Protein 1
Amino acid sequence: MGSRNNPSGNRMRSPVSIFIVIGLCCFFYILGAWQRSGFGKGDSIALEITKQTDCNIISNLNFETHHNNVDIVEPSQAKEEVFKPCDDKYTDYTPCQEQDRAMKFPRENMIYRERHCPEEDEKLHCLIPAPKGYKTPFPWPKGRDYVHYANVPYKSLTVEKAVQNWVQFQGDVFKFPGGGTMFPQGADAYIDELASVIPIADGSVRTALDTGCGVASWGAYLLKRNVLSMSFAPRDNHEAQVQFALERGVPAIIGVLGSIQLPYPARAFDMAQCSRCLIPWTANDGVYLMEVDRVLRPGGYWILSGPPINWKTYYKTWKRTKEDLQAEQRTIEELAEQLCWQKVYEKGDLAIFRKKINAKSCRMNSANVCESKDADDVWYKKMETCVTPYPEVTSANEVAGGELKKFPARLFAIPPRIADGLVEGVTVESYEEDNKLWKKHVNSYKRINKLLGTARYRNIMDMNAGLGGFAAALESPKSWVMNVVPTIAKNTLGVIYERGLIGIYHDWREGFSTYPRTYDFIHASGVFSLYRDICKLEDILLEMDRILRPEGAVMFRDEVDILIKVKKIAKGMRWDLKMIDHEDGPLVPEKILVAVKQYWVGGGSNSTSAD
């Protein structure tokens, strides 16, 4: 009946229905094309992520230390390679500073103590075991003064350096009273004397270099004054000195002033010291002092305590003649003048020199100035007997290379290298956007792992630091960050130091200059995309496992297809893993992979091996 009374109804509805159907078809066609256009990386990858992604990470991964086996987070879908433990003799394995390999190189200029990495067929493809009885280090600040004997079971320094108050053995722990060869009464009193000359208290001095650091007590006690030190010492007969430093929670690397330039940019440090470091400053026409000058900021300070300072008192103790020691000090002072340094203090065992802020008042020999145009290009580069030139200035009061704000203001101030346009592709605007982005990322990390930013993670590494945004957003007296700038990435390490942070150049195709189990938390953003066509991903992952402490955590940030490969390899490394979405949602192709290294030790005890 209705159709007879209104015969035009069907005719009116048909075009509308057709239009709706056509519209829906177009919508779903576009949606399907969009899903395959790149965001989803194809159906198979999207399906994999759907299976693996879970934002409620905390309920599945346990970031607390407990020293027991951890339940496997996810059931294995396919048989992956399982990496077996290395022999217990490799507990303290340092790939590029191994003693047996070192002895094959010349002793001249400490070449044998430099980095000598294994060839591809010599690399270990196994997991470095922790020693039996290994315990999580004491939290900071207690960790500054105490270390578990089981973690670093070497007593030689307690005997050799007993009268110098380096370290004492008490029960099942080592105690570090804060002494040193030139400050047996404690680092605090020594630093107080330095602070009477150097403006340590007001934030003018933020970054410091300790050459031949011992157990790094100078750096350990500078931390409470908001000064961040980079300490280094060789792996030599002073067994485990750098390992002790890192176990205490103090920044340090295995290193030496030999024939190769230090892995730091020019104008990196506000202050550098040699406290009886035994570096022959007058040898090789002063090349070692010239290298310190390269990394010392204009207006920075160099501290020398120990031979030949105060030679009149100690010449018999040092078993050297007065004439020899006097000549050595005279030569050091002549070299300092050539470098445009001025001696500002000498009293007792201590001498302090200050580098002038620019070259306007210097009498430098132009024939002795380095010809290299890039004083930051130092990876495996030979030291040269030449003086690194100051950046140009327009007035006598201008600081060469740019004046830095006092810390903490300099952390987010515009670094001079960026203000002057010296970092290709980085502008003031992009730098500020990078800071905003990393504040957002770090806030997200803290929601994922609520222990990040607490004393649980003291020693932190950023494997691909960029402009230092991660470390700046995380800045806290509870932790410090080793900012690594890969040698194949854009050179931004100078910017990182201008922010009052510390770091190092490194190539992740090689072993890092540290002992096993020295970092609590590792951040790896874009590392595996950077190296995907250059080396095996498993080599980098095994090195990460070597330097990560048992029950330490890793936060990966990378493209989804890369992280799937990383996760597949890492499943065989006794790590618990979970993939989660980007902060901005599941449609962003960049993902986050979180890992926790299981607790296990050598000798089969507490081992999680399936063997």
Protein 2
Amino acid sequence: MASSDASTNIHGHGKAVDGKKKRVRCNYCEKEMSGFFRLKYHLGGVRGDVIPCEKVSEDVKELFRSKLQGGGRLCKEVRDLFQQDLPWKRNGCPNKNVSKKIRRQSSESSGSESGEYENTDSMSEDDLKEPAILPSKRIVSQSAVTGDPKEESLSKQNKKCIGRFFFETGIDFKVVNSPSFQRMINDTHCPGQTKYKIPSCQELKGWILKDEVKEMHEYVNKIRQSWANTGCSILLDGWIDEKGRSLVSFIVDCPQGPIYLRSSDVSASVDDINTLQLLLDRVIDEVGVENVVQIIAFSTIGWVGAVGKEFMDRCKTVFWTVNASHCIELMLDRIAMMGEIRATLEKAKTISKFIHGHATILNLLRDYTDGHGLIKPTKIRSAMPFVTLENIISEKKNLMAMFASSEWNTSTWSSRSEGKRVALLVGDSSFWKGAGMVVKIALPLVHVLCLINGDDKHHMGYIYETLDQVKETIKEECNSKKSQYMPFWKVIDEIWDGHLHSPLHAAGYFFNPSLFYSTDFQSDSEVTFGLLCCVVRMIQNQPIQDKILQQLDAYRHSKGAFGEGSTVQQRTKFSPAMWWFQYGGQYPELQRFVTRILSQTCVGASKYRLNRSLAEKLLTKGRDRIEQQRLNDLTFVHYNLQLQQQHSKLGLNYDIVADEIDPMDEWIVDDTPEIGSQNGDSASKELESAKGAVNGERPSFQVKEELR
């Protein structure tokens, strides 16, 4: 068709496929879309609203493009849509005021602290509940529009799903450009269906991240609303990175779930207690001083240890406690260094290093253990020696069978000093006796680690009694011989008294109905002091303090609602906090006070095992403000997604054993050279040959490459 003949009547270039003209088919490519208005964009090749027609002639395309761009109210909009390479800020926020508002609210969307940006303490509830909504123009250009509303929605959800994967894992956005990634996504999609619309890097950084920030704000707001009733704990997660910087992240934990607040670089203040205290004050104010019950520190030494010594004198309403998991790890570390315990662990390490340090010996062992090794890597480092020792004991018969086998006895290893030493050690009954005792002493503490790190329940009502039970178990394993169990009790008591114990633990023990109403409950001076300390620090209103002390009498003597049949029956069936929520309503002041205590956790940020690399990147200077804000948003989303996932896994058959072990671990690395490397792999050949002879097979000289 000549240019002069090209009709400007849009109805001449397409036809309605339904009576209401809601669906229109292009005469050139037969693609369907919603309405004749979109057909103009389709024919004019204007991207952003519909996909351009590939079969229309150039004169028709130029006619409609000129018509759309020539003037009128759509002039600017069409030009914006046609210029696809414009930055996100210009493409999505043509209004300067809207752009400023979005940038300000986006800054408030993540909690990471930086001196160059607005203080998140100024964040309002309205800003949190109503993040800025991008103009509809941006929504049009943000998705791969096909003309089919259902397909558009599906495409958008696909992209958001992929985006969430990137945000949660922290993977570089550039991976979306990898052909392998694209094939992986499309090949796993159901055959015959439309292929996934893989988002671009710009989409991941732009509208997809923006939508995720908005959704995460809604999630965080919901959790924030629960703090007034249950209270919350601020968890400190501190570390020193490879650059030598002292960094700390702040997490707020409550029964509804944990949320990431912010991260800070405290390198310049590690020796300044006042500055560090001011930082904590700002965090407490942001959460709400009326909501914060305790701060849980990650360590007892360094700057956090120094702050902890003065914190409760300076802050009269908030408790300072230390991560219970960290304290139990300290107990295990101390026990591992004790004379006979240390000697037994060293012997076990000698066995594991010899076997795991040489591929040929490890392969031989696996023939006797159904493919298993001796080492049990753990998610908590301090537990690994004891869990591994327990596993070695379980493989005792297999180890003895291996070292008595003809494969072993005919190998070069059996004649070397290292091999003889390990073989004698495996046959030494005193080693096995000592190993059994070590496991009996340490495993009760390891079980506590599993309980508090893997359970979704808050253990404030149990930690006091749990440690007492650990001590009693150790006493029983030592046949109640004071000379044997007292050294271990001393280790536990020193760390409990010096670091772990808090008045909150004593009060939690007192208000746990399953323990309080039991026959062996003991309310000693430590428990009484802890209870009164909590009343004084947590309740500033004197009349309410008096009411709580009066209402305590009903709880002590099982009066009123506390003595009713159903209440008594549920003492051991409900969690302590739930029991008080259900049956404490007759005494509202006491109920609220107790609920806020029992709703707190005893474990710090280590429970959630967050990847710290993104926080380290965020706290590295040198970016422009827009890129820094984008990283700020990404960090906010990343850590809160991780916390959501970790929290959802709690209580689901927690296993302290980790999936992988460091190949350079001290339980593996052996300085003894592999014999095969010196003698043409003769040791390996001898073992394989011996196995073949025993099984009536021809000798095999193939050595497995797997080291462990």
Protein 3
Amino acid sequence: MSFSDSDSSSYGGDYKNFKQISRDRLLHEMLRSCKSGDSKSTWKVLIMDKLTVKIMSYACKMADITDEGVSLVEDIYRRRQPLPSMDAIYFMQPSKENVIMFLSDMSGRSPLYRKAFVFFSSPIPKELVSHIKKDGTVLTRISALREMNLEYFAIDSQAFVTNNEKALEELYGDEENSRKGVTCLNVMATRVATVFASLREFPHVRYRAAKSLDATTMTTFRDLIPTKLAAGIWDCLMKYKKTIPNFPETETCELLILDRSVDQIAPIIHEWTYDAMCHDLLNMDGNKYVQEVPGKNGGPPEKKEVLLEDHDPVWLELRHAHIADASERLHDKMTNFVSKNKAAQMHGSRDTHELSTRDLQKMVQALPQYSEQIDKLSLHVEIAGKVNKIIRELGLRELGQLEQDLVFGDAGMKDVIKYLTTKEDTTGENKLRLLMILAAIYPEKFEGEKGHNLMKLARLPPDDMKAVSNMRLLGDSLDSKKSSGTFSLKFDLHKKKRAGRKERPNEQETWQLSRFYPIIEELIENLSKGELSKEDYPCLNDPSPSFHGTSHGAPVQQQPAAHSMRSRRTPTWARPRNSDDGYSSDSVLRHASSDFKKMGQRIFVVIVGGATRSELRVCHKLTAKLKREVVLGSSCLDDPAPFITRLKMLTENELSLDDLQI
């Protein structure tokens, strides 16, 4: 029986991304390690709690688990049928309640299972280990007792969340004391630290410093959120250094800790990628999309749940593409499929170039022999069609242009007022989002009666005013240059209006409405170049002599020649492009990991209070650009509607300074 951490020090072979390593640890180190001795060929029961079942489901498929010898998955808190001839694998949090349930299962003369392999998702307190050791009968039935140190949801190949969905409320809300906030940060610190334990990485830790507007202003709990999280993660890492075999002694990667106050526009503005548009406009439940499929024997259409995830090659190829680009590519794929299949051509009398994407979809669906090949493509044609229809119906292109012009200082208060008075059919949510962007750039316009008058003009209820006023609770950004407001402001000398972002002359705007970028893009690039301000983003640990500033990434690719954005070169909404064949998406899966073979050291960015899909997109973009895997972590991944709902739940009263524990 082993009371040790599960050893994952060597992965060997090709470079594996963050999610692949997480998956391998669960399947190989945990499940496969139980195939030993007389347990080698027997089927097993896998028992998990509510958190660990999600950890497993984000990283692995049920088929993967079955392949490792698991025939049954159970909830530790449900009454279970005794299976005394089978072995059980417990994967659970190290809580007192879980340990009590485990002991109840395995104690006495008639235990539920023959043997138990026990794996904890994070470090188990000594008192709980002692509690387990006290029961002699249980002890003889334990084949393994280990700390997996894997307590996060791998929601993407390069992203994880700690499942702290109430972090915004607990850290920024109106509390008489900071106990909830401290508890939240402690949980986050433990879970983020397990990421580094899983990957055997020891980070050079940077965090966003608390910065008061002047020397007389007291630092609040909210100001210190990144500082406190950095300290909590560091404490966990120091323990790992002592307890985990082969844990690195010197820095192997970089970690940047931020909070939601660093960029208040990113969670609200319309992001025009296929992924973001699907989640923003289609009321999806997580990654689940409900598709209508033709009914059997000519009956009414049936509803079918599908998952938009990395195993879908079309989704993998298109998710970070602009919605217009994605639509063009889908049409090209359908056209090429039809043109290369004579049977398909016989179903259509017109030239394929004259057919709409919908016509092409119907044509191909009529061919049963191609149903398997075309299912994914047909699904995305339907989804893109729905998204584009909603964009037209809601007039989102014009709104999106105004949003981006506001952010870059090309539009101001008058333009917003004109829009609100002429576009009265705009939805309440979209009006609110527009006003929130305005408040992030012009906070003084919402002071006192001014804010109420703007809300009246937009015909928004008082409840929506909470979302605008509560933006102040997120605190100021380091880029703020005015004491009158608490929002992230930047100034361009060539523009009369205030801007929330500066232009980037080296970035070509290929598609309309693709100018916007989240602040973390600048921060990550500066971090990688060794140019991130040490005053604004101090180091928790001075790097070792072997850790050099900019040498851990491959050479950055040459940027295209700069052009002036002032010339107002109009990008096409859906410009024609050279298309690949209908199934080239499969090559995306085949080569997904080949790009990682010559990677530099990883960069981890953790955002407290929720990350956005635009920030996830940037991490993928910069991974290719910097030749360093950029992994995004957060308390949760938020779309605009749930973020606004969380914001409304906050109030403006400051925390009591007596309760602060620095």
